[in-house]
């Protein structure tokens, strides 16, 4: 794995865009047994503006995670930011005092049969920290301690490279007007067009027109996809829940 790690570091150093970096990361982590990859980036130590990128998770789960705002109660990213060591998802009850909503989240996660995985804390300059989740399916597929340490080194190197490439995000935010951003924010909170019209004191027809424009600019065809793109590229900034006690 040391040879692979050295090559990976060379590869990411050559990445010119964040998308190219993401592709290098996916290739590396999949080659080392990860079936699913989730990367959360917390700019300047704040929860506002968090970006989320995923690969390999069921589409229904990703939509559920975003649409129902499960990122508010997912304890893994918050806990990872407080730790310097990798931990297994299945060990979280032993290392954190979860509140009821967080326990409910972990129980629901198990019902989706996503298996076990690693939570990897990431640290960057100026508090640009992050979290990498690697899902391996069954516990028999989990790497040993040495393998987990190597994956953490690769993830940390990738995160630092990403911090250097922040000006070239995975998807450049669309050129949205202030009103379009407002409407996208309400869509991400699950509001209907009629409710948004009441909130903004504009006509339903006007909201319908804005939503059609949003779909065109974001290259999506439904509200859930618009919310995912909005949150994933920081056009919409979710307010996350409280830290793990």
CATH class of the largest domain: Alpha Beta
Q: So what's the overall shape?
A: globular
CATH topology of the largest domain: Beta-Lactamase
Structural class: alpha+beta
How are the strands of the biggest sheet laid out side by side?
Answer: 2-1-5-4-3
Outline the biggest β-sheet.
Answer: 5 strands, antiparallel
How big is the Rg? Answer: 19 Å
Mean pLDDT: 85
Indicate the CATH architecture of the largest domain.
2-Layer Sandwich
Order of helices and strands: HHEEHHEHHEEHHHHH
Pfam family, one: GerE
Protein name: Regulatory protein SdiA
Keywords: DNA-binding, Transcription, Transcription regulation
GO molecular function, one term: DNA binding
Secondary-structure map with pairings?
Blueprint: H1 2-14, H2 18-31, E1 36-42, E2 51-55, H3 59-67, H4 75-82, E3 87-88, H5 92-95, H6 100-111, E4 116-122, E5 129-137, H7 145-164, H8 178-188, H9 193-200, H10 204-218, H11 223-232
Antiparallel strand pairs: 1-2, 1-5, 3-4, 4-5
InterPro entries: Sig_transdc_resp-reg_C-effctor, TF_LuxR_autoind-bd_dom, TF_LuxR_autoind-bd_dom_sf, Tscrpt_reg_LuxR_C, WH-like_DNA-bd_sf
Protein name: Regulatory protein SdiA
Domain HTH luxR-type: 169-234
